[in-house]
Structures are given as structure tokens and as C-alpha cells.
Request: fold
Amino acid sequence: MLSADFGHLDRDTKMIDGSSAEWIHIDVMDGVFVPNISFGFPVLKAIRKASAKFLDVHLMIVEPERYVTRFVEAGADMVTFHIEASRHTAECIAAIRRSGAKVGVSIRPKTPVSALQGILQDVDMVLIMSVEPGFGGQSFIPESLDKVRELRGMADAAGLDTIIEVDGGISASNAAALFDAGADVLVAGSSVFGAADPVEEIDKMLNAR
Ligand code: ZN
Reply:
């Protein structure tokens, strides 16, 4: 939703709600973990009101453990936080679980997949950032494909069915390669909202599965 028109948030949310997209991805930025500020609880609540879809909330904020419960109360079905942003990873995972939402952790492009060792069995999803977090409209970092393959291998070896999500620079042109590498969920912002027909762009990406 970062690429939606916030002056017409209800319209844009309902457009996605009526599309074949399965989840709605919501990027929360605090201006500290990333050099940009997006929005918080009131906007999430407004999106929750306008859609029945699964709300996938991606926190790019420091000390996420302080806020995760409130994001669930505001409507999040999944809360994902950056392992680089929390010194209390286990506590943060437990707080999300207690709130009744699914748990995701995310890594920036420079953080290796090996940093997830010891955490993987405790989370439902891993979000691999395929651009530096903080801004929409950036180009996909090709090495992200290797990280998806490596993570899928690590999850398989541990007998886990970890959901792998990829976020940043994704469009119909690289969706097939990402699904082939082992991704389950692709996040798309500017490629959807910038398309002449956003609903058709979503269909194209999903048809690449
Ligand atoms: Zn995101």
C-alpha cells in the first residue's frame, strides 16, 4: 500500500480487495530504522475497515517489541519485524504470538540468510528485502534470488514449511524467477499502482507461479 494514493486510500484499498491479490502488504517506517516515515495505526485501521483480506504488516521500526501488540489490535493478521532492529528477537516473536497474529522476520539486503539460524523454527514467515528498505520504486537486487534459494534449502533441511516473502522491485518481469527460486509471497507496490491496469498486473504476477 506504500504506493497507493493516500488521498484515495479507501478507493485504492477496495481496488486491491477486489483483485486476485491474496494479501495486502503494509509498510510502516519510523524515520529511524529507515530514512523515511510512512504511517502508523490510524491508517492501518482505515485499511482494515476497507478490506477483508489478510493484512501483512511490515515494520521498519526500531524496538518493534514495544509496538507489535498495538499493530495486531489495529488489524494486522501477520506482523513482520527486522531482526536488525530488535535486540529482543525472542521477546518480540513471543509478543506477536500472544497477540494472536502470525509472525514474520525480515532481513535487509546486506544481512546474510545465516543470521536466521536459531530463529527459523519460531516464525511463520521470512521476508527477504530485495531493495534497501525505506523507499518504494527501487530496482530489484538480483542477488536476492540466491538468498531465496539458500533460505528454501535451509528450511527444507530443517523440515520447516517457512513462508518465504520477497519485497522490493518486483513486477511481472521477475515474478517467475522468484517463484522458481522458492518464494511463496511476492510484494509489489509501484509496479501495481503504476500500471495502466493494476488488477491485470496482479493477475500476470500470480500466473507466473
Ligand atoms: Zn514491505
